């Protein structure tokens, strides 16, 4: 018998509310549509309504894969009228996904939530999510790898399944960055959006379609202050001085982040391609974290992956943190872009600093499911377009960067780390 493995069974995505186009951003930012598109490749993003939290978005994405989940109970933070306004796309993949339900013979055994914007500093958001989905007392926990969270989560779920501890794990990546953005900071405000993506990881056998083949993960804590929310945690609470003005908001040093993101994702992709024995030309679909279009293009170019293989989604949703990769997967699969057995390379970079890459083969796909939440009254009587109604993004690789990083630093090929795992262990930052 073939050895036990872990396979991707299903993926779904959900974004809240009406899209916010570039032209609707605050006038005091003094930016226009052309300026934002040129520097980021982003045309719009979605914002959670007041009172709507990460747990609410995570629930909406997850219940597309757990169809017997109850209607959202008004017990979570921010419960109330209009909390579930929005549109979403859920894409089911694989025959096993059709029977994935809380009370089924092979239901969800554990829940992992990747987020940088939890509902509370304490407790974690995952147990509440599991309860709202009707999953009872299954183990549930958060992981905090910022924008690398979904890839880290896939690795965690892989370990839980391959070890035999659980048969199926629900993984959700969700972030509501709008709650952390400084209204005075246009560089972050134009880039980030809110969203959630979910996946089911189940037990299978080596060689099965959907198999998670290999991972490359890394971190470099010497760059922890490049992406941060300075206030609110134990560090800021441990001193007598009051927090500085703005410490409660998200901060990112764009130029340095750009350089690290390109270097780390490039090195991680190269390392993993060697591990699985693929050439860059063997990759059917390259799905990077949707940070900005210039980072995506730079990584693809350096790895040697052509534009036709790049999957992008950020022009419609912006940078959605841990949700960005599953949202891009759900959107592309809903358009019929993927075929069973396609070779996929997923890579991400986030605060910490953290990064990671996973290689997998795409599972069997079935008819996509598009859902508009109906558990409460939408905030608008005019429905927003679903992801499947927007133009395809197969070739979106606009030369752009964050507004703060219009002239990114460059690094020679020789200086880029080839093995991110080794880089993390020996402490070199590779920059």
Largest sheet: 7 strands, mixed
Give the topology string: H per helix, E per strand: EEHEHEHEHEHEHEEEHEHEHHHEEEH
Low-confidence stretches: 72-105, 366-431
Assign the structural class, choosing from mainly alpha, mainly beta, alpha/beta, alpha+beta, or little secondary structure. Answer: alpha+beta
Give a brief description.
The chain is of the alpha+beta class.
Notable traits:
431 residues; alpha+beta; seven-stranded mixed sheet; globular; disordered C terminus
Describe this protein's structure.
With 431 residues, the chain is α+β, with helices and mostly antiparallel strands. 25% of the residues lie in helices and 21% in strands. The chain contains 12 helices and 15 strands. It has helices at 33-40, 54-62, 95-98, 126-132, 149-162, 186-189, 234-237, 254-276, 293-303, 314-317, 324-334, 420-426; strands at residues 4-16, 19-21, 44-46, 86-91, 110-114, 140-143, 168-176, 194-205, 212-219, 227-228, 251-252, 285-288, 343-350, 354-361, 369-371. It has a 7-stranded mixed sheet with strand order 6-5-7-8-1-4-15, with helices on both faces. It has a 4-stranded mixed sheet with strand order 9-14-13-12, sandwiched between helices. A two-stranded antiparallel ribbon has the order 2-3. Helix 2 (54-62) crosses helix 4 and helix 8 packs parallel to helix 9 (293-303). The chain is globular. The model is unreliable at 72-105 and 366-431 (pLDDT under 50).
């Amino acid at each position: 018998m073939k050895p036990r493995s872990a396979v991707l069974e299903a993926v779904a995505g959900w974004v809240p509310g009406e899209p916010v186009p570039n032209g609707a951003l605050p006038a005091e930012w003094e930016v226009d549509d052309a300026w934002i598109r040129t520097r980021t490749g982003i045309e719009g993003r979605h914002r959670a309504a007041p009172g709507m939290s990460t747990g609410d978005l995570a629930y909406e994405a997850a219940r597309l894969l757990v169809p017997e989940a109850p209607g959202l109970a008004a017990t979570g933070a921010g419960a109330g009228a209009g909390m579930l306004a929005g549109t979403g796309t859920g894409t089911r993949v694989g025959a096993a996904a059709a029977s994935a339900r809380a009370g089924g013979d092979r239901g969800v055994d554990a829940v992992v939530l990747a987020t940088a914007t939890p509902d509370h500093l304490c407790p974690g958001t995952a147990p509440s999510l599991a309860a709202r989905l009707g999953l009872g007392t299954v183990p549930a926990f958060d992981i905090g790898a910022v924008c690398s969270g979904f890839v880290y989560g896939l690795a965690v779920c892989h370990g839980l399944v391959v070890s035999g501890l659980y048969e199926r794990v629900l993984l959700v990546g969700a972030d509501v960055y709008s709650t952390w953005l400084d209204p005075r900071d246009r560089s972050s405000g134009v880039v980030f959006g809110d969203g959630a993506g979910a996946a089911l990881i189940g037990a299978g056998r080596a060689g099965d379609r959907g198999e998670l083949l290999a991972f490359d993960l890394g971190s470099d804590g010497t760059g922890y202050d490049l992406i941060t929310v300075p206030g609110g945690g134990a560090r800021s609470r441990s001193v007598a001085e009051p927090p500085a003005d703005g410490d409660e908001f998200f901060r990112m040093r764009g130029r340095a982040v750009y350089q690290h993101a390109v270097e780390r994702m490039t090195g991680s992709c190269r390392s993993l391609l060697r591990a699985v024995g693929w050439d860059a030309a063997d990759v059917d679909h390259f799905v990077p974290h949707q940070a900005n279009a210039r980072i995506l293009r730079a990584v693809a170019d350096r790895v040697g992956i052509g534009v036709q293989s790049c999957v992008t989604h950020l022009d419609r949703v912006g940078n959605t943190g841990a949700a960005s990769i599953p949202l891009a997967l759900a959107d592309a699969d809903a358009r019929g872009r993927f075929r069973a057995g396609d070779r996929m390379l997923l890579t991400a970079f986030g605060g910490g600093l953290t990064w990671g890459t996973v290689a997998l083969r795409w599972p069997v796909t079935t008819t996509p499911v598009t859902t508009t939440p109906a558990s409460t009254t939408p905030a608008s009587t005019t429905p927003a377009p679903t992801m499947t109604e927007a133009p395809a993004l197969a070739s979106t690789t606009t030369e752009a960067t964050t507004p703060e990083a219009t002239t990114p630093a460059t690094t020679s090929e020789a200086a880029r780390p080839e093995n991110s795992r080794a880089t993390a262990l020996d402490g070199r930052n590779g920059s």
